[in-house]
Design brief:
heterodimer; A: 324 residues; mainly beta; Methylamine Dehydrogenase, Chain H; 4-stranded antiparallel β-sheet; 29 strands; B: 178 residues; alpha+beta; Alpha-D-Glucose-1,6-Bisphosphate, Chain A, domain 4; 7-stranded antiparallel β-sheet; 7 strands; 26% helix; 35% strand; globular
């Protein structure tokens, strides 16, 4: 007999959702744009007051997000409808969109805001899209199952975490040529650039973080973290890594590449980003339907804000408040 | 027989992929049931990772490692020689009356999911009774685009929900009249 055969199916809409409210966090003037995959929307959270300012519907069950504060927009990727959407940060209104094929997953914005890059999970490539007109103008070949993307602060390179190839691809953004394919830990998913200019991947399959020199194309360190690391962000010279299965954030020393401490957060922590002043780390808890606010100095949780259903916030999702 | 034919087709294709790729959207469900017994009594019925006999679909449980982290078990479903599900324990707390486990190996025809993890918890309620909460997080069984209907997101949710509901119903019945 099959596991579920003949058993009564139930309405999952009745699934119980626990929402806990903010415990008075104090974070100056930043907004979090949190993609809620299961409810297919974005929670726009005022991190200063701990209040959800707006809930914006997004097509296609979004996970990935990229804010671009200088142009006052944010982008989401909805894999179910293969839609990249562009929103106004202040109003939450849709400005433009683009429907792709394949399996759009991760997203990053060029520092000058002129282009976005979207990874194609199923077809080992990255689309380069002009943000003015939302047109695909480039296609870059990666290793198998590219997930997270990051662009250098000076816009000189783009790097992808190629999950099923266990590697990072680094592209020169002047020529759009592949510069390096660098083997990292097992199944890298998240990727971000540290304060030291190195690229860091979260390796889902080996519970590690790998540090890569994007210029030389070499691995320069590996740190052990918790179970199923998902994302990494940086504050106070330290790395903060969400561990999906451990319900923790690992704080790592970037020089020694060692785990200093772990912080308990909500269930299934995923997307992680930092406020502009570097003082607060924001963590999306996918199962708990909350974000946790971590004091980057004290390394403890100082607040929690309710979100929609299934917050993932995969990418850069915190931006200065521009009103709204 | 459908199961055998499908297994033959899928075994080479899906099993190696299952640990690697997955569909685009992770699903989650939470089911709860009130059980008319003290939490300690309910926990002693369901809190042994090595005995899932309380679930009506489970014929036998064989495993290693007791209730220690990384303990494993293989559930045989329905009857001797029935389909199996292999699982590993990754959190266990007698105090919180909760354990968490993942599936390490299952055919998608048996349970159409990949990257499955689950939590089972007994929560005390006022007046001496219990609530059993069963939560799951998983991707659909088909790792690529355009899944067939039996391996899509809805099929995954329906299957896991039905498993949980059957288990919870059995507990409610077992302790009814307490």
């Amino acid at each position: 007999m099959l596991w579920w055969n003949g058993l009564r199916a139930i309405d999952t809409a009745l699934a119980v959702m626990f929402l806990s409210l903010a415990a008075g966090p104090t974070v100056a003037g930043d907004i979090a744009f949190v993609t809620n995959q299961n409810s297919s929307d974005v929670s726009i959270l005022d991190l200063e007051t701990g209040v959800e300012r707006q809930r914006v519907a997004v097509p296609g069950k979004p996970a990935a997000i990229a804010v671009h504060p200088a142009s006052g927009v944010f982008y989401t990727v909805g894999p179910d409808t293969k839609t990249v959407s562009k929103f106004d940060q202040a109003s939450g209104e849709v400005l433009d969109d683009l429907v792709l094929d394949g399996g759009p997953l991760g997203i990053a914005v060029a520092p000058d805001g002129s282009m976005i890059f979207v990874s194609d999970w199923y077809n080992a490539r990255i689309w380069g899209v002009n943000t003015d007109g939302m047109e695909v103008v480039r296609t870059l070949e990666t290793g198998s199952a590219p997930a997270g993307l990051v662009v250098a602060e000076d816009g000189s390179w783009l790097a992808s975490a190629d999950r099923d190839a266990d590697q990072v691809s680094v592209f020169d953004l002047a020529t759009f040529k592949l510069r390096h394919s660098v083997p990292v830990g097992v199944r890298p998913f998240g990727i971000s650039v540290g304060p030291d200019g190195f690229v860091y991947t979260t390796d889902v399959g080996s519970n590690s973080v790998t540090k890569v020199d994007p210029v030389l194309g070499e691995v320069t360190g590996t740190a052990e973290v918790g179970e199923r690391p998902y994302g990494i962000a940086f504050a106070g010279g330290k790395g903060f890594v969400t561990n999906q299965y451990s319900d923790t954030v690992s704080v790592i020393n970037l020089d020694a590449m060692t785990e200093q401490v772990t912080i308990d957060v909500g269930e299934y922590p995923e997307g992680i980003d930092v406020t502009g002043d570097g003082g607060t780390v924001i963590v999306a808890n996918w199962f708990s339907n909350t974000v946790s606010l971590i004091d980057a100095g004290g390394l403890d949780v100082i607040g929690e804000i309710a979100t929609g259903d299934g917050p993932r916030a995969f990418g850069k999702f915190v931006a200065p408040d521009v009103g709204g | 027989m459908k199961f055998v034919r499908l297994a033959a087709v899928l075994i080479g294709m899906v099993v190696p992929l299952a640990a690697m790729a997955h569909g685009p959207t992770r699903q989650k469900i939470t089911l709860t049931a009130e059980v008319a017994a003290p939490p300690e009594e309910v926990w002693s019925a369901i809190g042994d990772f090595q005995d899932m006999g309380w679930h009506p679909a489970v014929y036998s449980t064989e495993g290693e490692g007791g209730n220690e982290i990384d303990a494993t078990r293989v559930l045989t479903l329905g009857e001797e020689g029935g389909p199996t599900i292999s699982e590993i324990l990754y959190k266990y707390s007698d105090e919180k009356m909760s354990y968490s486990y993942r599936i390490t190996d299952v055919l998608v025809e048996v349970l159409p999911v990949t990257n499955y993890s689950s939590h089972l918890t007994v929560i005390p309620v006022d007046g001496g009774g219990s609530v059993v909460e069963w939560r799951g997080a998983f991707y659909r069984g088909y790792p690529n685009n355009d899944p067939p209907p039996e391996l899509n997101d809805e099929a995954a949710i329906a299957a896991v929900s039905a498993v949980y509901q059957a288990g919870l119903d059995a507990l409610v019945e077992r302790f009814a009249g307490n």
